[in-house]
Q: What sequence folds into this?
């Protein structure tokens, strides 16, 4: 949908803002509201507290006291939420000591102010500082921020319009997010079923002897990973210093490189031949399964389907080379199913830092169909997961486009690039969108 423009414009005098409607004003933030910070600390949060407690993240905590009872816009003063986390609230609340509070609005509606600063502040500050991130906000940086100021009645119309339109876009985004979750669940269910029950629904079944695995096809075997593969990882390795990486050479994979649908050979580090040859047992070959064995990424898995150049891995990744009775792609899908999650939970037990040792991996029980059947299962799952992954990618791209439209619409409305005054009747009332 295209939107009309205002009848006439003037130069705002602000380079990044450009022209604004002729009857609008432009002023600095400090003239429009009171700027202050909270006085509480993170440890003051109370799980069942009576009042909202605004901290430096998008999550609103609870607290047992309040320091303000007013309409306010709040934003993180430092940390990862700088320029990204904004709240609009009216009532009793408390705020963290590094959260900025904007209140006592003058000549500007709180909702209009919220939409304006939420969409424009970070982009403008980044341009002004030539930084990809902003670590903290200083009061002068905030106080001097330029804001367009339409007449109050017009601000209310713009805010009402945006509440309605963004509610529609948010509903569409939520639908796409729900679709992604459903596709993820379906993907997991298809993999888990096929790698444990096979492709023939009429195949006679038998008890696997493993409680969490249940029944498997009667002609399948149950074996241990150590009997069917060579499992290894770097041992006694001193690691690499940053200056030891080279611009071009041998690929050195880390856990982030194996987290996706396929191994990322583009965003990698390179090492020289000497460091590559230090651990010949970790030199990769096609068909190897790579498994993250440490920390929060424990259980992340991928399979080497091709090698664009000689490649090795760091000490956080276990390398599993199947023998002739085991397909690497079948093993990859077996790990992707609920199998790995169940196994990790049993192995990990009460360990403080999650870690899988080589001895643990060797003990893993695995269902073992005949090799040709493993290949058929792998081919079937390649086809099915590709279809599901394509649908997921389309849904994610749809969300990106909707988010871009949402941002562009808000930015255009609050800076006067479009005239929405005649469209307010189609928007959801402000109180219904809150």
A:
């Amino acid at each position: 949908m295209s939107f009309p423009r205002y009848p006439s414009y003037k130069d705002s005098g602000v380079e990044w803002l450009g022209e604004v409607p002729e009857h609008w004003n432009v002023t600095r933030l400090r003239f429009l509201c009171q700027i202050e910070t909270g006085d509480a600390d993170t440890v003051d949060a109370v799980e069942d507290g009576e009042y909202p407690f605004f901290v430096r993240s998008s999550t609103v905590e609870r607290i047992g006291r309040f320091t303000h009872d007013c309409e306010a816009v709040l934003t993180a003063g430092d940390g990862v939420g700088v320029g990204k986390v904004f709240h609009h609230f009216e009532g009793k609340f408390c705020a963290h000591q590094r959260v900025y509070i904007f209140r006592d609005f003058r000549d500007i509606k709180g909702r209009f102010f919220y939409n304006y600063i939420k969409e424009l502040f970070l982009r403008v500050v980044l341009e002004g500082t030539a930084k990809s991130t902003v670590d903290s906000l200083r009061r002068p940086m905030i106080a001097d921020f330029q804001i367009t100021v339409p007449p109050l009645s017009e601000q209310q119309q713009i805010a009402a319009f945006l509440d309605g339109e963004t509610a529609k876009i948010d509903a569409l985004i939520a639908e796409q997010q729900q679709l992604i979750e459903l596709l993820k669940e379906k993907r997991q269910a298809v993999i888990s079923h096929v790698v444990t029950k096979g492709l023939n629904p009429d195949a006679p079944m038998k008890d696997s002897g493993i409680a969490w695995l249940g029944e498997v096809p009667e002609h399948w075997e149950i074996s241990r990973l150590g009997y069917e593969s060579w499992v290894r990882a770097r041992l006694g390795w001193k690691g690499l210093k940053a200056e030891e990486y080279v611009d071009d050479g041998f690929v050195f994979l880390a856990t982030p490189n194996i987290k996706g649908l396929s191994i990322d050979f583009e965003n990698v580090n390179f090492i020289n031949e000497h460091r590559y040859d230090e651990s010949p047992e970790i030199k990769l070959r096609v068909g190897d399964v790579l498994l993250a064995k440490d920390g929060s990424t424990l259980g992340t898995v991928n399979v080497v389907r091709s090698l664009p150049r000689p490649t090795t891995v760091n000490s956080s990744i276990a390398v599993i080379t199947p023998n002739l009775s085991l397909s690497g792609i079948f093993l990859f899908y077996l790990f992707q199913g609920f199998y790995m999650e169940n196994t990790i939970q049993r192995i990990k037990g009460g360990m403080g830092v999650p870690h899988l040792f080589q001895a643990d991996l060797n003990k893993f029980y695995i269902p073992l169909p005949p090799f040709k059947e493993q290949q058929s299962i792998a081919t079937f799952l390649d086809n099915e997961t590709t279809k599901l992954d394509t649908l997921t990618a389309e849904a994610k791209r749809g969300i990106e486009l909707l988010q871009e439209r949402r941002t562009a619409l808000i930015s255009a409305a609050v800076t006067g690039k479009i005239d929405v005054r005649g469209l307010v009747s189609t928007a959801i009332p402000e109180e219904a969108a809150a």
